[in-house]
């Protein structure tokens, strides 16, 4: 893998001032200021890197060389670590969650759920495990930290430390989607 970090990435696009607000969007296909070049065949990788560099030069884009990584097997990207076996959580994120103090108010519950929610794809049945704390986010819900919520809090911290390495998707393989739902959670298993 090779990672290119584009100098001034997002701001290389010229546009009218009144249209800038239109460019705030999310997509699963593009993250504009970083580019990862991945090749199944290591022998083809150099050619793929050259193609991307040629396109960047044609577009007049420059790279932050200090932040680029060439021909590596491990890439730290968007808060996750890509390794040959798949995707794993950054150790810093695991440490932050496992050292999180017991919430003393709604805002602290929101912070913890935000942090664990970011890595929820690694936690099987995340909604079920987080549900006792999520109840506190309901309008007019009184903050009461009870035994059930403490157990849910501790369980989520434990599950983050046991998080598996997730396999990367192979777009060529057929997928089977198995949905499930309860009164408070939705889940989908992709097989």
Automatic annotation (TrEMBL):
Q: Which organism is it from?
A: Talaromyces stipitatus (strain ATCC 10500 / CBS 375.48 / QM 6759 / NRRL 1006) (Penicillium stipitatum)
Query: Which chain regions cross the lipid bilayer?
Result: none
**Annotated coiled-coil segments of the chain:** none
Reverse transcriptase domain sequence ranges: 30-81
Q: Report the protein name in the record.
A: Gag/polymerase/env polyprotein, putative
Limits of the Reverse transcriptase/retrotransposon-derived protein RNase H-like domain? 145-190
